[in-house]
Structure formats: structure tokens, C-alpha cells
DNA sequence: CGCATTTGACCAGCGC
DNA sequence: GCGCTGGTCAAATGCG
């Protein structure tokens, strides 16, 4: 399995706290300052396969990215029906959250299009696509086998539309993160 | 009825 | 070349 970087480690130990609006920071034009100035800067310039965590916001939240490239928008059609992305692929952003539930409400609507068993993991990986027309943002959701409270959500692409839910969720998540990080 | 989910099949990439 | 694995498709099914 590819080792996607973990952008955030957050906690939402109750289902009611599973809103993750901060995802928008890394994937849309919603305009959080640190997205452009810090996150993109770091993420765009990280050397290949760098494992060094980069801290921002506070010392307990790390951002990492592998070098998947950013020229991956080109797609080719195989001789059959499948659309296959060329490599290098789009940048991916992984969020690691501690949650009882797999489905994190990040303010966007997602449609599940696949599920696969993962090697060395007793939990399947689920594949989701943003249902907004023209927006082909994808995400994968996977629960860790060694710690089944940890849910890794991997985002690919940028939303081309505003999120459909209010930013209240974001504040809620931020407070959750602060609680988590103070532990 | 419309939309979301499930699930088996298919395809591509990679390592051996 | 072959097998394994990840990613996607699409028909069937479920649900409000």
C-alpha cells in the first residue's frame, strides 16, 4: 500500500463529533490562510518520500506529503470502458482521525463507488466520490487493523464548489482537536 | 421513483 | 510472463 502522508491527526471519539470540515482547507479554495501560505507551500515542495513531519498550527499537528506529483490531471482511456489516470497522480492528503465511525461528515456529499479488502488489514477500504456535478474529488476511508479506532481518510483532488454545510462544524472540530492535542 | 450502497468483475501497475 | 494488489466500473439491490 502506498504510504500516504498524514496531514492531521484529530480525535472525534463520539459519532456526533465526526464532522471534519477542516478538510476543506487542504482541498478547496475556501481560503483558510494557512492553506495557501503553509500547507501548500510545504506540500508542494516536499522532496520525494520525505518522512519528516512538518508541524503547523501547533506542535502536535503534523502535515506530511509524499511526492505524488501535481500533473496528474491527464487521463487516458483504455481500449475498454475504464478511465485510468496517468502517473504521476494527483496529490493526495491523508487525515488520521480517532473515531468510532468510518464516515466523517466533512460538509460534502459523497457517493460510495467501491470497497476493497486490504492486505494485512481486517478492515476494508471504502472509496468515495464527491457527488457534486463536475467535481471529481475522491476519498478513501480505511480503518487501521492495529488500532481500530484510527480511521485514515485520504483525499484526492480539489473541490470545485463550496461545501454544502455551514462552517460551524469546523469550529466544532477545531475544539475537538485542541482537546485531543492537550492530552 | 430516484438516489445511494453493495459487490463481483475487470483493468493496470508492480515485483518476482 | 505471472500473480498479487489497488482502483474503478456498473448491474443489482436497498432505502426513503
TrEMBL record:
<feature type="domain" description="WRKY">
    <location>
        <begin position="99"/>
        <end position="164"/>
    </location>
</feature>
<keyword id="KW-0804">Transcription</keyword>
<dbReference type="Pfam" id="PF03106">
    <property type="entry name" value="WRKY"/>
</dbReference>
<dbReference type="GO" id="GO:0003700">
    <property type="term" value="F:DNA-binding transcription factor activity"/>
</dbReference>
<dbReference type="InterPro" id="IPR036576">
    <property type="entry name" value="WRKY_dom_sf"/>
</dbReference>
<keyword id="KW-0805">Transcription regulation</keyword>
<protein>
    <recommendedName>
        <fullName>WRKY domain-containing protein</fullName>
    </recommendedName>
</protein>
<dbReference type="InterPro" id="IPR003657">
    <property type="entry name" value="WRKY_dom"/>
</dbReference>
<keyword id="KW-0238">DNA-binding</keyword>
<keyword id="KW-0539">Nucleus</keyword>
<dbReference type="GO" id="GO:0005634">
    <property type="term" value="C:nucleus"/>
</dbReference>
<dbReference type="InterPro" id="IPR044810">
    <property type="entry name" value="WRKY_plant"/>
</dbReference>
<dbReference type="GO" id="GO:0043565">
    <property type="term" value="F:sequence-specific DNA binding"/>
</dbReference>
